[in-house]
Amino acid sequence: MPGSGDLPALDPVAEGVAPQDGGGAVSLGHWGAFRAEVRGGRLIRATPLGGADPDMVGAWPELVHSPRRIDRPHVRRGWLENGPGASDDRGRDEMIPLGWDEALDLAAGEVARVQDNHGPTAILGGSYGWSSAGRLHHARSNLRRFLAASGGFTDQVGNYSWGAAAALLPHVLGSVASVSHAATSWDSIAAHADHVVAFGGLNPKNWRVTSGGAVDHPLPDMVARAAARGCSFTVVSPLAQDVPAGLEATLIQPRPGSDTAIILALAHEALTSGRADTGFLDRYTVGHDRLAAYLTGQADGQPKTLDWAAAIADVPASDLRALWQRIRAGRVMLTASWSLQRGQHGEQTYWALIALAAMLGQIGLPGGGFSFGYGSMGSVGANARRGYVPAFPGLANRGMQIPAAAFADALLHPGETLAFDGRDITLPDLRMIYWAGGNPFHHAQDLGKVEAAWARAETVIVHDPWWTSTAQRADIVFPATTTAERADIGGTSRDRHVVYMAPLLPPQGQARNDRDILTALADRLGCRAAFDEGLDETGWLRRLWSQSIAKGQAEGIEVPDFEELKRMGIWDVPAPTEPEVLLGDFRADPMAHMLPTPSGRIELFSKRIAGFAYEDQPGHPVFHAPDEWLGSAESDQFHLVTNQPEKQLHSQLWQTSAGMSGGPAPVRIHPGDAARQGLADGQVVRLHNDRGECRATLCLDAGLRRGVLVMPTGAWFQRDSSRDGSASSHKALELNGNPNVLTSDRRTSRLGQACAALSALVRIAPMDPAPENNT
Ligand SMILES: Nc1nc2c(c(=O)[nH]1)N[C@H]1C(S)=C(S)[C@@H](COP(=O)(O)OP(=O)(O)OC[C@H]3O[C@@H](n4cnc5c(=O)[nH]c(N)nc54)[C@H](O)[C@@H]3O)O[C@H]1N2
Ligand SMILES: Nc1nc2c(c(=O)[nH]1)N[C@H]1C(S)=C(S)[C@@H](COP(=O)(O)OP(=O)(O)OC[C@H]3O[C@@H](n4cnc5c(=O)[nH]c(N)nc54)[C@H](O)[C@@H]3O)O[C@H]1N2
Ligand SMILES: [Mo]
């Protein structure tokens, strides 16, 4: 099992990136920027720029020229012969190649039929997924624009990454500090913090990826700098690998799902030891008295002591007392990975951490307070001037929105009510699924349920460059180009660069750009002017870039014109003069920078949330045990943690040498647990529970907490076809190691209705007899 990457030596890194030197056009993926070498009509090499991972970037030629590319439009035989209708045959039926015009006519006819006959909410077109980097050709954004222009659709709100936080934080912090890139910069931590506590850890594998695509990958260096200045670290995670190699950190390994109890107990300790900063609490927060009544046990008879938390987390109470001693003095930065809100009651972990930071009174001070996600995504906490990567405009949608993770419920239970963040949503009557730029058979939980939901649709249309598990389950498939086959502008507000993404190759096979496919459909449906506004690719890129030029004029920043950007390849946006400090303005002047919450302050008690009258939401942070966790497990059950893959972006890159397609995906287990189960390193095993079963390759890891299994997401979903065709095929063994056949589709709570994949119990057994490996 490859390691996650060491901390770098402490020489200044910040290599200047000069794409114009040495030739080769530049492009960008979510996993970093690269220079391309094209010979004889083939991309033969992609060289990483600015610290991107060489294996991931180096796999671009394999992606572009993959035998798994979709070469032309295809239509499912059963759909072609019988017309639209619910079907269990998706993914099994033959896919028949069709000419572009014929396929486009069929797709346009279906969009018109469904919108005309069933109204503006009958197409599920939220199309959640990362798509590719680049603003203009972002597949999901284009699809939503097209479906809005053509008559409306059911959109998905929120996401799988940050769903619970996205619902909670606006109530607690207001909108400004609630976005997933808001964080105190690492420059500030490196200069000021005495101690960092990272719940969920700081796993460098996650820093390889930034949504939108970053050129810099500064975090390993930043952590090393803070440590070199004398900042100490505590990592709270079941997995020792979540500590960057080379960092000396104190490791606490709790039961998954118990962090909220630890955090609340630290807050209780602050309160009862007299350490709580009452001046801060009075001036900047509301409701700390309500929280105090819960912490002390006045409200429910249970004081939230360190001993209470130690029993829940199953860690020595002395470890928590030592942690309290480390954070009671000095400048302390508290952080939690995004994974911690991707479990049942995930909202509470974030709220509790904010409350603890409020007690310590350092919110808004350099290097102190809290920020989420340093361990989750590249460039969280990078020093970047935001807003110079232009935004692709959407259009008003006459349809409706459902929470992103609730799409299977919508397909299965039309007309039912879903409680979400204080509202009641009536689930729409969906007739059609249209997906471009996402892979729900990768990202959704309880894939057996998703298969059943998918079968309810009358028509499914998918665009993808590759025959993914989702593309295989479509009625109409359009082959999309990859990033390498088109011009674009890319980057992310977390990073200090904008990239002109040069077209490296002509479209492969008969592939077309997503927006060209949608333009052709819009043409047929009479809404082309609304969709493309008469602009071609270059026209759009110029228009997008003019936003950045105008912003620069307003802010006194010199922005290159479009031709100049093309020539440069990568533009370095001038860095802000001061490192960012989350809520620094609010601390400096809480009246002038009032938070957009009902009270204008940080809400440790939220009347609004209490007013939703959800029985698990008393209105302040609270610990609830998940339904599935080690606290309720039988002796042979394990807690399955599904984390992000090391050298893939979700399901992307799986099919390349960087990815996991060489065998069933790895599952980490403690050697003691493996021995108890009679299992050996490298052995192919079967993970199973009531929801399903999948294969995995056993990987011994002495750094893992006993009773926990860690398995990355990202394997392409594939049922064992030898057991297929039966009524119970939605339960048939999954071969490639996709853990979402095991995870539960129960949501974080009614507040967030977000993905709660990380609360799942499973059993493990030897794989006997071994089925054919038909990856
Ligand atoms: N169990 C479990 N499940 C999880 C998670 C977890 O922690 N545990 N994490 C969740 C999270 S945080 C996320 S963000 C999701 C990610 O889930 P997704 O975003 O759905 O995963 P990707 O594999 O990135 O899917 C992107 C798809 O877009 C396609 N694509 C790439 N470029 C283009 C293009 O130019 N045009 C078109 N049309 N398609 C393109 C790719 O081939 C791929 O099929 O997974 C979630 N699922
Ligand atoms: N290489 C790579 N990097 C990525 C991605 C990728 O696909 N590949 N995806 C990107 C995306 S979309 C997102 S949203 C982010 C996600 O960022 P995260 O959600 O933070 O990432 P994960 O790897 O899912 O989880 C981080 C760690 O949390 C720990 N953990 C899990 N459950 C618990 C718990 O209950 N308590 C504690 N204390 N720790 C726990 C696990 O050991 C895990 O290694 O990653 C991004 N970065
Ligand atoms: Mo994500």
TrEMBL record:
List required co-factors. Mo-bis(molybdopterin guanine dinucleotide)
Q: InterPro entries annotated for this entry?
A: Asp_de-COase-like_dom_sf (IPR009010), Molybdopterin_N (IPR041460), MoPterin_dinucl-bd_dom (IPR006657), Mopterin_OxRdtase (IPR006656), Prok_Mopterin_Oxidored (IPR050612)
- Which cellular component terms (GO) are annotated to the entry? outer membrane-bounded periplasmic space
Q: Which UniProt keywords apply?
A: Metal-binding, Molybdenum, Oxidoreductase
Domain called Molybdopterin dinucleotide-binding: residue spans: 638-754
EC no. given is: 1.7.2.3
The Molybdopterin oxidoreductase domain, residue ranges: 69-524
Sorted alphabetically, the Gene Ontology BP terms of this entry are: anaerobic respiration
**Ranges for the Molybdopterin oxidoreductase N-terminal domain?**
28-56
Q: Name one Pfam family in it.
A: Molybdopterin
Q: Does the keyword Metal-binding apply?
A: yes
Q: Write out the GO MF terms.
A: electron transfer activity; molybdenum ion binding; molybdopterin cofactor binding; trimethylamine-N-oxide reductase (cytochrome c) activity
Which top class of enzyme applies to this chain?
A: oxidoreductase
Gene3D superfamilies the UniProt entry points to:
2.40.40.20, 3.40.50.740, Dimethylsulfoxide Reductase, domain 2, Dimethylsulfoxide Reductase, domain 3
Q: Which family does it belong to?
A: Belongs to the prokaryotic molybdopterin-containing oxidoreductase family.
Q: What is this protein called?
A: Dimethyl sulfoxide/trimethylamine N-oxide reductase
List the taxonomic lineage.
Bacteria, Pseudomonadati, Pseudomonadota, Alphaproteobacteria, Rhodobacterales
